[in-house]
Amino acid sequence: MAFDPLQERGIPLDEQLRNWRELNVTPIDPDHADPYTRCRIITMNGIEVEAILFSHQLARHCPDLEIKQQLARVRYIEAQQQKVVNWLLPGLASVLETTIAYEQVAVDLTAWVARMEPDSYLTQAYQFGVLEDFDHLYRYANLYEMIEHRKAEKIVDQLTEVMPGRPTYLHHRDPKDNVRQPYDRSVTEPLSRLHALTIMSAEQQTMNFYMNVGPMHMEPIARRLYQEIGLIEEEHVTHYESLVDPGESLWEQLLNHEYNECYLYYSFMETESDPKVKNIWELHLNMELEHLRLAAELFKRFDGRDPDQVLAPALPPPVTFEPNKGYIRELLATQIDCTTLGTGYVREAHERFTRMQEAVMGGEKPPSEQVIDDNRAISGREYRLETEGPHPAGLQLSR
Ligand SMILES: [Fe+2]
Ligand SMILES: [Fe+2]
Ligand SMILES: [Fe+2]
Ligand SMILES: [Fe+2]
Q1: How far is the CA of 15 from the centre of ligand 1 (A)?
Q2: Per-residue confidence at 313, pLDDT binned at 50, 70, 90?
Q3: Ligand 3 mean position to 341 CA, how many Å?
Q4: Which terminus of the chain is less hemmed in, N or C, by CB atoms within 10 Å?
């Protein structure tokens, strides 16, 4: 039966607070956990971080004391949820291992969203971005082999391939060309709003993560690679956030945020293989139903509309982590040489792009190319995980 979060009853806000014992969850086993369980954890952490940051921004624009207090109460629960979710990650995993898992999320979540997105302009934006995070995965996998002497298949298993995408050095575009056109809130499918919020939040968390952990590495090549890819994640946040219609009021945005949290917890509850983690998704879903009810009240009061006018009548099919190898290979064969110009896409290196490239390269090889050279020198070949045969673009993609 279709699940309509607006019709379901959740846990009353007063009963959502957890004590230290309840917050102290047992992390997943880094060696035996389903890689897609780890992907769901990383995704939900990004969603909760966005819930917290958005609520803070909203509070800073809100003159009404009582509403500010209500936002603070819900936000504290979001903060507890973020702690529970992110603390499912094991301390045993290294920063670089977690990084590889972040890029696996970017690949398989974005590919899923691209496949399900009903709007062709938005689909193009996801297809464009996924080939870049796919390449980041390959660069970090080579760094991992070089400095930790392990192979990325230990983390991604055989679920996601590791090989060149659009080469990372070509991702450094003039910032002006990273801004896309938004969807139109008056005609868009409700699913498109959810997709844009989900990918924006995941990329924002990746950006924040690289900002913070990049300088914690000792090896110069690792420090440099995190700087380079960290700047691309800034570009990705710009790219995806610009898809959201800025004409949505803050109350409409709050409503979309809470609805999307319901959608994703529901999706992951339906698809989770680890029973302990599944219990957490279910508990958090029941909390989010109440957050949604409160957001819907604020929306009715300040926006003067009914939530049914902007939300779907029931949840769309669950967001699913699954291999997207064939889909990615198709994109590699057809879109590897794309870049952006203004809000559109082109295949040639235009003047503004070339100027940006010259400015950031400073006449040297970028870290993302150096890391492949260095690993070839040490391991005798670069690291790839091509489970479905040779690279579909068939190119030597090195600079
Ligand atoms: Fe939440
Ligand atoms: Fe990335
Ligand atoms: Fe990214
Ligand atoms: Fe929430």
Answers
A1: 15
A2: confident
A3: 19
A4: N
